[in-house]
Amino acid sequence: MSLKITDECINCGACEPECPNTAIYEEGAEYELNGASFDALSDDYYYIVAAKCTECKGHFEESQCVEVCPVDCIVVGEEEDDATLMARYESLKV
Ligand code: SF4
Ligand code: SF4
Questions:
Q1: pTM (2 decimals)?
Q2: What does the DSSP assignment read for 40-94?
Q3: So where are the chain's domains?
Q4: What is the pLDDT of residues 16-54, one digit of tens each?
Q5: What is the predicted pLDDT for the residue at 78?
Q6: Could you read off the pLDDT of 55-72 as tens digits, one per residue?
Q7: Backbone angles phi, psi at 28, to 5 degrees
Q8: What is the pLDDT of residue 79?
Q9: Quick check: CB of 92 below 6 Å from ligand 1?
């Protein structure tokens, strides 16, 4: 599963530095993927780039962003199996 941030986010910024895949960006910030930059996915709240989220697999047992979010607004987005997440982890390493 990749995770997503709901509109209950209070933009506290606690999650961003915890992500081992740099999948979390502040509102309005461009994100990077494979060396290219892309427009922000949200101008209102912190957001997660699904293509970079492994649910922390390969790094940690628990989703680090969920652990630190004070308002529990990070929820399951798209359902993905472990093989998909580990393949993403491997692709993000290079
Ligand atoms: Fe980053 Fe892990 Fe949260 Fe996904 S679950 S956004 S990889 S901290
Ligand atoms: Fe938003 Fe939660 Fe991240 Fe804070 S920790 S910026 S409330 S998603």
A1: 0.95
A2: -S-SSS-EE-GGG--TTTTT-SS-HHHHH-TT--EEE-S---HHHHHHHHHHHH-
A3: 2-93
A4: 999 999 999 999 999 999 899 999 999 999 999 999 999
A5: 82
A6: 999 999 999 999 999 999
A7: 85, -10
A8: 85
A9: no
The residue type at 72: D
Residue nearest to atom 8 of ligand 1 (CA): 19
User: Which residue reads 């509109």 in tokens?
Assistant: 7
Instruction: Specify the 3-state DSSP secondary structure of 6.
Output: coil
Ligand 2 atom closest to 14 (CA): 5
* 46 Cβ inside 6 Å of ligand 2: yes
| Ligand 2 atom 5: residue of nearest CA | 69
How is residue 76 written in tokens?
Answer: 């399951």
User: Nearest 5°: phi and psi at 37?
Assistant: -105, 145
Of the candidate CATH numbers 3.30.70.20, 3.50.30.10, 3.30.43.10, 1.20.1300.10, the domain formed by 2-93 belongs to: 3.30.70.20
